[in-house]
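Bench notes, afternoon.
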Amino acid sequence: MRHKYILLLLFSVFSSLLYAQDNTVELSVKGGNNMALGNFVALSIDANTVPCKSFSLKGGLQYNFSSDFVAEVRPAYFYDLPKMRLSVEALVHYQPLNNIHNVAAGGGFGLRTRYLWATLGYYHRSITSGKSRFCEPFNLYYEFGVNVLPSVEICDLMFSISNSRIFDLERHYQPSLIVDCMLYPIEKWGVVLGACYKPAGMFNLSSDYYQFYANIGVCYKW
């Protein structure tokens, strides 16, 4: 039953793209290795839409062939200044695994310029299995990034450190190092390339001692 509600929510997110401008939708295949799953392959689709002048909506669905799926939605209100964009966002993250349900909700603030961006926020996580329930009442999430080629129209190259990439919400001591590249050989159509590495056992507190993945996909913007 929970799966149906999540899929309905994601359908609402993508439906909003029909009425929006200056948006992107991305379909990618991700492959890598981590301690929990070993080698894994995942298929994901995510979208970023601006249905009105000061409101954006980002969401997506990832299916992991080794386990289950992850769904996430992030609505945000933003305000543009001459050289930067300020935003406040909400976050809802859901990931089932066998009979375990991982649900997180929170919110944060963001800042974006031509070259840099940063997001800092809080989330509450609830993990349930049958009648058992475990809560993490306070977690920080963050992302700090650099846009290396803002003046090049056919290529975007970005480096970031984050514990809260879409589909990958972790504790504050489990940051990922990420490189993303998007090439646009055809107007509006792009090729997506990326890689992510999570450092091994930070302070001996991480339950997932390492993770690496690479992804390749296509995106469309309008």
